[in-house]
Amino acid sequence: MTDDDVGETGRVLARRALDLPELAHARTVAAYVSVGSEPGTRALLDTLRARGVRVLLPALLPDNDLDWGEYTGPDSLARVQHGGKMALFEPSGTRLGPDAVTAADVVLLPGLAVDARGMRLGRGGGSYDRVLARLDRAGVRPRLVVLLYDTEVVARVPAEAHDKPVHAVVTPSGVRRFPGA
Questions:
Q1: How far does the signal peptide extend, from start to end residue (predicted)?
Q2: Which residue segment(s) compose the domain that 173 sits in?
Q3: How many domains are contained in the chain?
Q4: CA 9 to CA 32: how far, in whole Å?
């Protein structure tokens, strides 16, 4: 996809995601800044912030866990190269600690695919597995939402015992909910 296609898809996804009741009523959303060919998230981040929502973004730690910082606009992002991994856009302000995610009403998760059960396939680093485990330990149950292209919703992805289903996937063609989540 061209940069223009990714940007337009991001705008469509933002409109669809913003129609979700979970995001309409959220006070705090843990999100991420898309990279590479991932569906764009910038339009969604800016619209959430304009609505007065507190937006938390991850910062990758050396052990692949995630710290969090607040998104206050495009100027609050820094491009960070993590060794041999891809460069990420992370919050440049004060770090709030890995437990900051427990304050989120909604967690937007990146992914490579989601299956018919709501199981998410990540990139394999385990960062979001740690986030989901942290939410469980804290006893909080934010809504879990993945933003994907239509072709990334598949029949089945591999899942392990610790994997948890998401509540919804948002694609350019619509929203699919998973009641078992």
A1: none
A2: 3-177
A3: 1
A4: 16
Helix 3-18, helix 42-50: angle, nearest 10: 40
Along the 181 residues of the chain, how does pLDDT read in single tens digits? 777 777 788 889 889 999 999 999 999 999 999 988 888 899 999 999 999 999 999 999 999 999 999 999 999 999 998 877 678 999 999 999 999 999 999 999 999 999 999 999 988 788 999 999 999 999 999 999 999 999 999 999 998 888 889 999 999 999 999 986 6
Annotated binding site: 33, 38, 120-128
As annotated, the binding site for substrate includes 33, 38
CATH number at residue 18: 3.40.50.10420
Alpha helices in 86-174 (DSSP H): 127-138
